[in-house]
Amino acid sequence: MTAAQLFYSEGIRAVGVNRLLEEAQTPIMSLYRIFGSKEGLVEEFLREKDKQIRERFEREIERIANAPKERILAVFDVLGEVIADSDYRGCTFINVAVEMANTEHPFVEIAVSHKNSVRETFSRYLADAGLRETEPLATQLLMLMDGAFVRAQMHSNREEVALHARMAAEVLVDAALAAQAD
């Protein structure tokens, strides 16, 4: 099991250095030489996870959606694929923020940066759909997405969670576009 899998499935604090070294079959000096510390390894894990998630969402959204409004809703379609995974243990970045419980913690700053990039993506898609003022709707869509991530951890019917989030997103987007047209 890799460090990334351990951190995601068990939590950052629950996984000690000895367990990491044992699972990776790596000498302790390799960890310190490459990452400097467990914290350095966690930071690398979070940055790599951020990159992978952004790439996955971008790739899948472009594959399934052509029109700007469709891209907004496709975010929730991809979310449905993510939360349907049998290994799903929640949003890595929400989990990290909750686990660290300190908004000033460097890991939480990475999580916030990730969430800000999602909000900016929503904002870009909303602008592409013709919405002149993309805030606060971009933030509301992010909150809806985060809520779906959390709800999916608590309920077994994850497909329904994603579908409901998508439906709510569509109502919000349609209402914003209609209000702008008036």
TrEMBL record:
PANTHER family: HTH-TYPE TRANSCRIPTIONAL REGULATOR YJDC, TRANSCRIPTIONAL REGULATORY PROTEIN. Keywords: DNA-binding, Transcription, Transcription regulation. This is Putative transcriptional regulator, TetR family protein. Residues 16-35 bind DNA. One of its GO terms (molecular function) is DNA binding. InterPro entries: Homeodomain-like_sf, HTH_TetR, Tet_transcr_reg_TetR-rel_C_sf, YxaF_TetR_C. Residues 1-53 form the HTH tetR-type domain. It comes from Hoyosella subflava (strain DSM 45089 / JCM 17490 / NBRC 109087 / DQS3-9A1) (Amycolicicoccus subflavus). It comes from the Bacteria.
